[in-house]
Design a protein that fits this description.
The protein is α/β, with parallel strands linked by helices and about 400 residues long. Helix content is about 40%, strand content about 20%. The chain has helices at about 15-35, 55-65, 85-95, 115-130, 185-195, 215-225, 245-250, 260-275, 295-305, 320-330, 330-335, 340-345, 355-365, 370-380; strands at about 5-10, 40-45, 50, 70-80, 100-110, 135, 145-150, 155-160, 160-165, 175-180, 200-205, 235-240, 280-285, 310, 380-385, 390. α5 (about 185-195) packs across α10 (about 320-330), α7 (about 245-250) runs antiparallel to α8 and α8 packs across α9 (about 295-305).
Amino acid sequence: MYPLLLVRYGELSLKGRNRRVFEDLLLANIRASIAHLPHGRIIKTFGRIYLETKDNWEELAARLQRVFGIVSISPVLRRDLDLEEIKEGAKLVTEDTPGKTFKVETRRANKQFPVSSPELSRILGGHLLRSFPHLKVDVHNPDFVVKVEVRSEGAFIYSQVLPCLGGLPAGSAGKGLLLLSGGIDSPVAGFLSMKRGVNLEGVHFHSYPFTSQQSKEKVLDLARLLAPYNAGGRFKLWVAHFTEVQKALAKGSYPSLSITLMRRFMLRIAARLAQREGALALVTGDSLGQVASQTMESIHTINAVTNMPIYRPLIGLDKQEIVELAVKIGTYETSILPYEDCCTVFVPKNPATRPTIQQVERAEEELDVEGLMEEALAKTELVELHRDKIL
Ligand code: ATP
Ligand code: MG
């Protein structure tokens, strides 16, 4: 019944050129997200966007709820600036909204309209009470609010406000490279960086045949679940061949440092890839203190191999908060599938929780660090994913 979706977007503090770039990108991302669905015009007016639906507002809204930069959407009716028409529209919206108590809220941006906001709210409230004897007005804590916006383009009437993701439009910041494991954390870290406009690619370290084909498929699935949040609904995943590094570490004389050494290799390889791809930052799913490799000492020692900025959007989140986000963005079910990760295969019995840079540098003297990196990079393959499929 709603021929229009009203799309509200945020970051109103953005000024001048930034604002234009923000709005143009947002419009392009909206267009791309609904490209395969029937819809009418997309109309931009001051600070808001209207999308004409084709009797499919729910399906369109579901797509828009994944577009960063949108704060909320409402399915709305538009009526001409005529009191009788507005009354009829308010009645339809009320009929469509569950609840026993309500109030009417009017905003009159168009002062040409002769009835003031409080007066219009009173007229409509009275009309609705007469039309629906089971309803009562409650101005303090109503079950629903009938909202009427009187603008020069017409009167817009609605009750539902669907919250969306907020953030900045996909692609409005530079490129980043996510270290994507098969776990719960890193997809959420990727999501949060994309939320601030990062155009994300991923790298996954895979140790076939120590880790199975299934564990790789799982990571491809996770990357595909992240794809809709990227500009164009695409995600590039680099699958790095980590087997030789793992073998060399397993033979080494410092088993308690093997996780730290492994993470240093991951960061070095990721930093090289990032440079090659023009990425400006790495992104990881570290959360402070969660495991031995995420103590402050470990992060300090692991971080020392690169100057590249490393974003850790989960650093201050508890596991439960991360799980809730994973559920919300739809990656949780895939993340908990029980396939082994390269880290789980080679975990030492007693991983060092306070490794120092001197210790790991000594341990790395017996390794051909550069040769191992080159080999891993040479055997890295690219998989491109799209929101609906693995390309
Ligand atoms: P996750 O749930 O993301 O696997 P975790 O709690 O298991 O995280 P760790 O295994 O210590 O944490 O990994 C810390 C971070 O290192 C991950 O969030 C991810 O960014 C990166 N990482 C770990 N393993 C891999 C891998 N096989 N490939 C790519 N990145 C990885
Ligand atoms: Mg992990």
